[in-house]
Amino acid sequence: MIKNEVVNCILARRSTRKFTEQQIKEEQLETLLEAARWAPSGSNSQSWLFTAIQNKDILLKINELVREGFQHWIPDDDYPGKLGAKASSSREDYNFYYHAPTLIIATNRPNYENAMADCALALENIFLAAQSLGLGSCYINHLHWLRNDQELRNYLSELGIPKEHTICSSAAIGYIGKESNTPLRKDGTIHIIR
Ligand SMILES: Cc1cc2nc3c(=O)[nH]c(=O)nc-3n(C[C@H](O)[C@H](O)[C@H](O)COP(=O)(O)O)c2cc1C
């Protein structure tokens, strides 16, 4: 296998779940958002919106809305991540973005079939750019699950996230507080036909 700077960055990236309190630098945030903008998008739609939130009080308010949202949210399947997210939301120390100092929320226009794909690619750009800058990152799904929660949407709308947009995903970003273990990769997931 060939190793170069990009490949090494891809292999070294891990999902961070413990961040320090230190905010990332403005230039770093700009770099992450620019990396997101340069992701591929279906028919070059670029219909996404990346909203970066670095205000602790606003993040905590969103955390409370997520906590409340999960109380009356009924998962539409038994995907373990969803069930775990709902169950853990009742914990006193609950924080869905792991107290990261920066949360980037990716939303997209409604009724666009590539909405999730485009935002996921943009998020991976963010994660890899973060890794290259010595920052930690983690994909956070909770706002997607609660994308139709009225209280949450009202507040996000006040922050400038259009109500008609679908919430695709979000990225927690910050300096790494604790390195994550490396989950093993499953065998049998590659198939080459020559
Ligand atoms: C679609 C998607 C949703 C995810 N949602 C969450 C999440 O809500 N919270 C979380 O801690 N990690 C989340 N993750 C991160 C995965 O748990 C992680 O990528 C996986 O365990 C592999 O670990 P690694 O990223 O360190 O290689 C998500 C990843 C993806 C691709």
Structure description:
By secondary structure, the protein is an alpha+beta fold. It has one domain (16-174): NADH Oxidase, CATH 3.40.109. 39% of the residues lie in helices and 13% in strands. The protein contains 7 helices and 4 strands, in the order ααβααβαβααβ. It has a 4-stranded antiparallel β-sheet. It starts with a helix and ends in a 20-residue tail after the last strand. The mean pLDDT is 97. Flavin mononucleotide (FMN) binds at residues 14-15, 17, 138-142, 180, 183. Residues 14-15, 17, 138-142, 180, 183 line the site of flavin mononucleotide. GO terms for molecular function: oxidoreductase activity, acting on other nitrogenous compounds as donors, with NAD or NADP as acceptor.
